C-alpha cells in the first residue's frame, strides 16, 4: 500500500492483484449472502442473518487471535534494515522474538486452530498445526538453554496488551515512558546493548530474557526514585 500511495508500484501488477482480490471477495459474498439464502427458500432471511452473524463472530475472533500473536508486550519490533541480509539463524530468531503465544490448554488450541502456538507457527510454517503443541516443548527447552524470552499468556491479557501497544505506537515516541527500543510495547534487541553474555557471578549464560528482566527492574527503580 505504501508503494501504491507513492506511485512506486507496478500498476499492471497492482491491478491484477486487485482483480484477484475482488473476484475472491465477490465469490464469498455471493456464496454467503445470495446462493445459500436462496437455497433455503422461504427461510432466506434467517439464513442471511445467520451467515452475517457467523461472519461477524468469525472476524472478531480472528482479529483477537492474530493480534495476540503479534502485538502484546514481549513481541519484538523489527525494521526493514533488521530483515535485510539476515542469516538463516537470525531469521529463526526473529520469528521467535516477534511472535507470542496464547495459553489455555487443548480447548484454546482447538478454538484457535492451533494458532495459539504462534511462535511455533512462525518457526515452522510448513509443519502441520496439530504438531505445534509437541514441538513447543522443545522450543521452550531451547529458550531456557539460551536464556531467550518465550512470550505467552492468557487470551484476555494478551488481547488487552495488544490494543495497549497499538494505542501507544500510534503516538509519537516522546509519549512513551521508556526509549523506543526498551519500552515493553516496542522492545527490540537494540535496547539491551552492553549486556554481559555470561553472568560473572554464576557463570550462567545471560541472554535476552535476563536482559529484559534487568531492564524492567531498572525502569521500576528509576520511576520509584523519580517519585521520591
TrEMBL record:
GO annotation (BP), single: lipid biosynthetic process
Question: Which Pfam families would you find in this protein's record?
Answer: FA_desaturase
As one GO molecular function, the record gives:
oxidoreductase activity, acting on paired donors, with oxidation of a pair of donors resulting in the reduction of molecular oxygen to two molecules of water
Q: Tell me a GO cellular component.
A: membrane
- The Fatty acid desaturase domain sits at 52-152
> What name appears for this protein in its UniProt entry?
Fatty acid desaturase
Whose protein is this, by species?
Rhodococcus rhodochrous KG-21
